[in-house]
Write a structure and sequence with these properties.
The chain has 427 residues and is an alpha/beta fold. The protein folds into 2 domains: 12-287, Alpha-Beta Complex (Spore Coat Polysaccharide Biosynthesis Protein SpsA, Chain A); 313-425, UDP N-Acetylglucosamine Acyltransferase, domain 1, CATH 2.160.10.10. The chain has helices at 51-59, 74-83, 113-118, 121-127, 145-155, 216-227, 236-247, 276-285, 396-402, 415-425; strands at residues 16-21, 42-43, 47-48, 64-69, 94-99, 131-136, 139-141, 159-167, 175-179, 185-190, 204-215, 250-254, 270-272, 313-315, 317-318, 321-322, 324-326, 329-330, 335-337, 340-342, 345-346, 351-352, 357-363, 368-369, 374-380, 385-386, 391-392, 404-405, 411-413. Strands 1, 4, 5, 6, 8, 9, 10, 11 and 12 form a 9-stranded mixed β-sheet that branches. It is globular and about 70 Å long.
Length: 427
């Protein structure tokens, strides 16, 4: 006689959905987010930032996902449609894009991170899941969420919070967890002047990654109560999480327990690429002989929309006019024509013309670098036309006059900046 009871899924990921918060502008990225939300910013040659949390969810076995969008979401939505449209509803796989669409009231957009979930409670209900994992859409890392889900179930926590270990002297820039020896969070401090250390390691602190695991039934009730509170900011970090910590139901999950590393990666990799300096550094770091993040790991692939493009091409082999790239990442449909590229990352469709030099440059898709240009320590926005003989990265005062130069000495170049320069100089 056969057992008529349905089998329970063997993985908790089968009972979970990922809710990705991708509506933020990311204003610290300055002009890079004038036309796109931060999660839609390009990264690593052919990916977008949001591909990392989505790929983590997919590789972890999660097949139900929702993405809440708000600020200038067109490029993000287009990327989702082109690169993430392989989910099959007949197999119980779903990926819903949830723009702020005044579903609750005509004057009500998403008021905070928690409110973004609250306004879509009916959609989450339809998924019929036991667990919800809340993810930020704007961090770069590789992580197996199944391990975090197991910890959540084993501890019986009300919420499990993903945390990274950071040097205690740097922890004032984060939300920091104070925990006991069992991992229970005893206090949550937002950017504290005197961060609490990890038990047994006074030099390190636990900082929040903005990753939360809940049982859906509990989160649902918390969100409905929060929606009725006129004094709330309707935010996970400021409202929902402190409430659970006070009640004693919050546990920390250390990223080091679930990060995905290959033999080339020697320590857990997580980056908030939320400033121009951090964005430039993380991309340039990929050109290192052994980068801290292994983007060649096919066993934990970063899924994305990949254009059909011809291979990169290097032309001219004369003295002083040799097309070459050294310790650099060059994407498809790039042509390096009689120019030198060093320690740089070029996205799809770049053209680098003769006698030009690029050093530590991050160049987004379809940039055209004119003859004789000399650029170093720069980020170039997509579809920019760099004029001939432009020099950037050698005279800070001149760079600051026309472009955005950061405290770290990185220059951001956009087409609007170049147009203003040309109009002022009568070029």
């Amino acid at each position: 006689m056969t057992d008529s009871k349905p089998r329970k899924p063997t993985r908790l990921a089968d009972q979970a959905m990922a809710f990705v918060l991708a509506g933020g502008r990311g204003s610290r990225l300055e002009e890079l987010t004038d036309r796109r939300a931060k999660p839609a910013v390009h990264f690593g040659g052919n990916s977008r930032i949001i591909d990392f949390p989505l790929s983590n969810a997919y590789n972890s076995g999660i097949r139900k996902m929702a993405i809440a969008t708000q600020y200038k979401a067109h490029s993000l939505i287009r990327h989702m449609q082109r690169g993430w449209s392989f989910f099959r509803a007949e197999r119980g796989e779903y990926l819903d894009i949830l723009p702020a669409s005044q579903r609750v009231a005509e004057n009500k957009w998403y008021l905070g991170t928690a409110d973004a979930v609250t306004q879509n409670i009916d959609i989450v209900d339809d998924y019929d899941v036991e667990y919800v994992i809340i993810l930020a859409g704007d961090h770069v890392y590789k992580m197996d969420y199944e391990i975090m889900l197991r910890q959540h179930a084993e501890t019986g926590a009300d919420v499990t919070i993903g945390c990274i270990e950071v040097p205690r002297h740097e922890a004032s820039a984060f939300g920091v967890m104070a925990t006991d020896a069992s991992g229970k969070i005893t206090d949550f401090l937002e950017k504290p002047k005197d961060p609490p250390s990890i038990p047994g390691d006074p030099s390190q602190a636990l900082a929040s990654m903005g990753i939360y695991v809940f049982k859906w039934s509990l989160l649902r009730s918390l969100l409905l109560a929060d929606a009725e509170d006129d004094t709330s900011g309707h935010d996970f970090g400021h409202d929902i999480i402190p409430q659970i910590v006070s009640a004693g139901g919050a546990y920390a999950h250390r990223f080091s327990d679930s990060c995905v590393m290959t033999g080339l990666e020697t320590r857990p990799y997580w980056r908030d690429v939320g400033t121009i300096d951090a964005f430039w550094r993380a991309n340039v770091d990929l050109t290192e002989f052994v980068p801290a993040l292994d983007v060649y790991d096919n066993e934990w692939a970063i899924w994305t929309y990949s254009e059909q493009s011809p291979p990169a091409k290097f032309i001219h082999d004369d003295v002083g006019r040799r097309g070459q790239a050294i310790q650099s990442l060059i994407s498809g449909n790039c042509i390096i024509s009689g120019s030198d590229v060093h320690n740089s990352l070029l996205f799809t469709g770049n053209r680098v013309h003769s006698f030009s030099e690029l050093n530590e440059v991050v160049s987004l898709p379809y940039v055209d670098v004119g003859r004789g240009a000399r650029l170093s320590r720069a980020v170039i926005d997509s579809r920019v036309q760099i004029p001939e003989r432009l020099i950037v990265g050698e005279d800070p005062e001149e760079d600051s006059r026309w472009f955005r130069r950061t405290a770290g000495g990185v220059t951001l170049i956009t087409q609007a900046m170049l147009d203003r320069r040309a109009a002022t100089l009568g070029l």
